[in-house]
Amino acid sequence: MFKLSLYSCPTHESKYVEETHTQLEEGISYLRHSVAPYTAWCQDLYVNAMPKVERTVERGRESCEFLKNPPPGFYPRLGVIGFAGIVGLFLSRGSKLKRLVYPVGFMGIGASLYYPQQAVAIAKITGSRLYDWSLQGYVAVESLWKDNPKKKKSGKKASDKSEASNDMPVEVHVNSGEERTMK
User: Cβ-count burial of 102 within 10 angstroms (0-12 exposed, 13-18 middle, 19+ buried)?
Assistant: First the structure.
């Protein structure tokens, strides 16, 4: 009879053989690897855009509900504001700037007649933003028009001034508020 050992197991000789890829599989693999950055970009775009789209859809639903059950006097007010915009279009003959400013301005005036509290809040915010923008523009223009401090005046007087200024002590202001004189 054939006896089996209790402590040893028969050895099986196995060998791993990697399957060769076909040309179609290699083409698909190359395509997936080359498109991976674009799909990641699309996924990031989707993740960032989806909450905004959902908020827009929710606002649209709320607007539809509001228009289904408007407060009393809403449509006449809306009509007056819209009519003010149309009057602004008729009065804005000429330049393109007038065509933009007049209707928006007339509609703003009409809306401010019916909603004065909201108009005041918007005017405050807009005024502060316009003030900030004008300051930024002023600083930009000022920096463009300032004289270059490194310019030297030609002639003998400039050299005399530079020699005389070398003898005078210079005051240097440090951030801590101390003053030091250096020569």
Answer: buried
Q: How many CB atoms lie within 10 A of CB 111?
A: 19
Owner of token pair 């000429």: 94
Tell me: the pLDDT tens digits for 111-144? 998 888 988 998 899 999 999 999 999 998 888 8
Please spell the DSSP secondary structure of 89-101, one letter per residue.
HHH--S-HHHHHH
Residues 12-32: pLDDT tens digits? 777 777 888 889 999 999 999
Cβ atoms of 176 and 163 closer than 8 Å: no
Closest-CA residue to 119 (of 83, 149, 81): 81
Q: Is the pTM of this model over 0.70?
A: no
- As given in the structure block, the two tokens for residue 19 are 């399957």
CA-CA distance, 27 to 21, in Å (whole number)? 10
